[in-house]
TrEMBL record:
It comes from Methanocaldococcus villosus KIN24-T80. Homodimer. SUPFAM superfamilies: Class II aaRS and biotin synthetases, Nucleic acid-binding proteins. The gene is aspC. The keyword Transmembrane helix does not apply. This is Aspartate--tRNA(Asp/Asn) ligase. The lineage of its organism: Archaea, Methanobacteriati, Methanobacteriota, Methanomada group, Methanococci.
């Protein structure tokens, strides 16, 4: 049905016979001349239909086409400086593969704008828009780059269970499900499993997979099902984990700039390669927030107002390090009596990643679980891995959708998921 995508054609192919396929983006009849703009994954192709050259039957068939009909066109490439991209297609045969019901729920040509809810309700049509496709082509490039960096750095890709018997960190942000005669949950994070893998000798692992959080947030930054890029490194500390995260982010931005210039231009995004990643301590972050009038006490997690204030001051990418132990998960390695070896990667006021050096000592880990008000018996299988030679290790999780927000300049995380799941949306 197709020999070429639109991007594979050029004026240099003048006279060649090709076959293209896609959707009718627009059709304009000017007496005995019709112009059809065909849209495929890579762009647009102009089909020029002069009645005297194509004949009565083909002319009539093309004239009957409607917007978003699916067609395959066999034709001759004709160089024309006035045509888009310097060429057009003179059709020899046209196959109508399917027709579109009208009126359309929304306009893929974007002549009539639609609200986000309408777009998500009709996502299959929304995704036909070149700008929306550009988001996911950039996301694809990012994930490809991330994987390549991991492979180059000697990481092994793994997949941990998404049906689990206990929560990762305690708390109530869980989706319970019925698992035969037992209660189970959708996994909040691969955290416990990737730590257990550090006891196996695999040393460096990564996973790119869904996580599920039953958070009741209804913001532009939260999803209840998201893709997390997770890493765990044996014989490593928090400093080495931060360096790896910097490398992953830097390489991804570099590859997007190199390979997705067209998509960035289409979205109007001026993406810059970070020259450095600044680091501030939690204490310094709190002081910045207070100076900007945000009320926050030491030992509290950062409020949205605090994140905005700190983001205004810092700009770009930066790390917040040395967090109070009391507000970080039980598996985080203490630095001293008050602080732990945890870090967050921020972009302006948006948290992109969170990580730490982990506790690898069994007794200290059990003690920390109890300090958090949790029962060690609920973590039996996890704790077993720490009894028989667990090396020091560190890791992090990076949100794929949030990183895509940064790369594409989107302000709502729902635009960065194909079929987003939030508090109110379970379909399509």
């Amino acid at each position: 049905m197709r020999t070429h995508y639109s991007s594979e054609l050029s004026a240099n192919m003048d006279g060649e016979i090709v076959k293209v396929a896609g959707w009718v983006h627009s059709i304009r009849a000017l007496g005995k001349l019709i112009f059809v703009i065909l849209r495929d994954r890579e762009g647009f192709i102009q089909i020029v239909v002069p009645k005297q050259k194509v004949g009565e039957d083909l002319f009539k068939k093309i004239k009957s086409l409607g917007v978003e009909d699916v067609i395959s066109v066999k034709g001759k490439v004709v160089a024309n400086e006035k045509a888009p991209n310097g060429f057009e297609i003179l059709p020899l045969e046209v196959d109508v593969l399917n027709t579109a019901k009208r009126p359309l729920p929304l306009d893929p040509a974007e002549k009539v704008p639609a609200e986000l809810d309408t777009r998500l309700e009709n996502r299959f049509l929304d995704l036909r828009k070149p700008k929306i496709q550009a988001i996911f082509k950039i996301r694809h490039e990012m994930l490809k780059s991330v994987r390549n960096t991991f492979y180059e750095e000697g990481f092994i890709e793994v997949h941990t269970p998404k049906l689990v018997a206990s929560c990762t960190e305690g708390g109530t942000e869980l989706f319970p499900i019925s698992y035969f005669e037992k209660e189970a949950f959708l996994s909040q994070s691969p955290q416990l499993y990737k730590q257990m893998l550090m006891a196996t000798g695999l040393d460096r692992v990564f996973e790119i997979a869904p996580i599920f959080r039953a958070e009741e947030h209804n913001t532009r930054r939260h999803l209840n099902e998201a893709i997390s890029i997770d890493v765990e490194m044996a014989f490593a500390d928090d400093v080495e984990a931060i360096k790896m995260l910097e490398k992953v982010v830097h390489n991804a931005i570099k590859d997007v700039l190199k390979n997705r210039e067209k998509e960035l231009e289409l979205l109007g995004v001026e993406l810059e390669l970070p020259k450095k990643f600044d680091k501030i301590t939690y204490d310094e972050a709190i002081e910045i927030a207070k100076k900007k009038g945000v009320e926050i006490d030491w030992g509290e997690d950062l409020s949205r107002e605090a994140e905005k204030a700190i983001g205004e001051e810092m700009g770009g990418f930066y790390f917040i390090v040395d967090w109070p132990s009391d507000i970080r998960p039980f598996y985080t390695m203490p630095k001293d009596d008050r602080y732990c070896k945890a870090f967050d990667l921020m972009y302006k006021d948006l948290e992109l990643a969170s990580g730490a050096q982990r506790i690898h000592l069994y007794d200290l880990l059990v003690e920390n679980i109890k300090k958090k008000g949790l029962n060690p018996d609920a973590f039996t299988y996890y704790l077993e891995a720490f009894k028989y030679g667990m090396p020091p290790h560190a890791g992090w999780g990076l949100g794929a959708e949030r990183f895509t927000m940064v790369l594409t300049g989107r302000e709502n995380i729902r635009e960065c998921a194909l079929f987003p799941r939030d508090r109110h949306r379970l379909t399509p």
